[in-house]
Design brief:
Aspartate Aminotransferase, domain 1; 39% helix; binds pyridoxal-5'-phosphate; alpha/beta; 4-stranded mixed beta sheet
Length: 477
């Protein structure tokens, strides 16, 4: 044995924290935040809280059993904080599934609700009201300003100078249902009775009504309700083979629907080459291109529409939106180019509640706040901050987290190498006071209110790092 080796063996064993860290399978220089390893909000405390469980047991007898829910009962919210019946505060990184862009119980929105509901909530679409047209105008004018639907940012239109138009619904599903109907009507008007085919893509989520479900190719959602609507083809999302796209979208296709950033499907972004190819082929065969921006739209991706910054040749003919438009008050909308609008005539489509003055007055207020330059510069700063913090995760937990981070703006995701782990992270984080969502089969999604602060991002990411450390340690045990 050489002298240096003997010397090393004789030395007392000093544990180098960095080295022990390496041995445990973490990356080199970085250390995870371990401040939140102890559960502060255990589900078990809620499960053993008799008054809460009485309410849940009672309600379960009457509510249809369609959701799997943890045993907590949320009683109020403010900003990004939700409070349960045990007065425990949760930091909400779900925003009611990408809905409450301005946070919970916002003062400005409360005022609009109070004023408008004491004036007029509902009068039906038999008459005009003050706010539906006001919101439609704001959506169109902001789209011209920020880009989208064929308008380049600043107001130039690619191919039809005439006015874009809006139809209001009550939810995202209903917006997509209407958009599919408009595609069919446009197809028949321009290409004859056989132009009825619809194309959607793998991992899409467009809703649960018969039409929207038919373009949501997930067996879990579709199988119990088959047969679905006919003439639907499913293409591969981000497939860039010209041949495959040409075969998929043919002369009988009337509409193509896709999410420019898939939300439920796993926070996957559409590649610009794929979107350009699909848009080009749709135009070639005279099919209407529908972008479902229900989750990624209205500034969540950092721009008004996820496609706002794309070249106009990748813009759609119809945009559907919903979730944040009235910050949680039910609303949806379909915005169409004039070429589509021309084929829709009175009586073809309608709704009792859609476009009612209360929902649309709130929408006007929400859109004016979201499009405010200082709001947008703050959003840019916080979303970059979140993006930087997220970069630590694959480095810290290479055995657990996929290298490629997903999403942009404040629709972000981390992919897991093991598909059992996303729901484990969601549970562990909830038990430490942070609410997260899974997405697709292998991801966790971050969709906080667009008002999230850097401190709140620090807290959420601290909890996430602590929880991922627990998962890594559990794997090693
Ligand atoms: C992209 C997308 N489209 C459609 C829907 C359906 O919207 P809603 O639940 O409002 O009917 C959702 C809901 O999560 C969605 O994320």
């Amino acid at each position: 044995m050489s002298a240096p080796t003997l010397l090393r063996l004789a030395r007392p064993r000093v544990i180098n924290p960095l080295r022990s860290y390496l041995v445990r399978g973490y990356a080199t220089e970085l250390k995870p935040n371990l401040s939140y390893t102890k559960p502060t909000h255990p589900d078990s405390t809620a499960s053993s809280h008799t008054p809460t469980q009485h309410i849940i047991t009672d309600q379960s007898q009457y509510l249809l059993n369609t959701y799997v829910r943890p045993p907590i009962l949320i009683k109020q919210g403010k900003g990004l904080i939700l409070t349960d019946t045990l007065n425990r505060n949760y930091l909400d990184f779900t925003a009611g599934i990408a809905v409450t862009a301005l946070g919970h119980s916002d003062e400005g929105i409360n005022q609009i609700i109070n004023q408008q509901s004491s004036k007029l909530s509902h009068a039906s679409n038999i008459y005009w009201n003050e706010h539906a047209g006001e919101l439609a105008k704001s959506l169109v004018e902001n789209t011209k300003k920020f880009g989208g639907l064929g308008f380049t940012s600043g107001g130039n239109s690619s191919n039809d100078e005439a006015q874009a138009k809006v139809f209001f619904s009550n939810s995202g599903t209903e917006a997509n249902e209407g958009a599919l109907k408009f595609a069919r009507a446009h197809g028949k008007a321009t290409g004859g009775e056989n132009k009825t085919g619809i194309v959607c893509f793998t991992n899409a989520f467009h809703g649960r009504s018969m039409g929207a479900l038919s373009v949501t190719p997930n067996p879990k959602y579709q199988s119990p309700f088959a047969p679905l609507i006919p003439n639907v083809k499913v293409g591969k999302y981000n497939e860039t083979s010209q041949k495959a796209v040409n075969e998929l979208i043919d002369e009988n296709t009337c509409g193509v629907i896709l999410e420019p950033i898939q939300g439920e499907g796993g926070v996957e972004q559409g590649d610009i080459e794929f979107l350009k190819l699909v848009a080009k082929r749709a135009r070639e065969v005279g099919a209407v291109l529908i972008y479902d921006e229900i989750q990624c739209g209205l500034f969540r991706s950092g721009t008004m529409w996820a496609h706002s910054s794309f070249p106009v040749e990748a813009h759609p003919d119809i945009i559907t939106m919903a979730k944040p438009l009235s910050n949680g008050f039910p609303i949806g909308a379909i915005m169409v180019r004039s070429s589509v609008a021309e084929t829709i005539t009175p009586g073809m489509h309608g709704t009792t509640f859609g476009g009612q003055p209360l929902a649309t007055a709130i929408g006007v207020h929400v859109l004016s706040r979201l499009s405010d330059p200082s709001f947008l510069s703050n959003l840019k700063e916080t979303s970059e901050y979140l993006g930087d913090k997220m970069k630590r995760l694959p480095e810290l937990f290479p055995s657990l987290i996929q290298e490629k981070l997903r999403g942009r703006g404040l629709i972000r995701g981390i992919g897991f190498k093991d598909t059992t782990k996303p729901s484990e992270l969601v549970r562990l984080a909830r038990e430490r006071g942070v609410l997260l969502l899974t997405a697709g089969s292998d991801a966790v999604r971050f969709v906080p209110a667009l008002t999230v602060s850097k401190e709140q991002i620090d807290q959420a990411m601290g909890v996430i790092e602590s929880c991922l450390s627990i998962i890594v340690d559990g794997e090693k045990a």
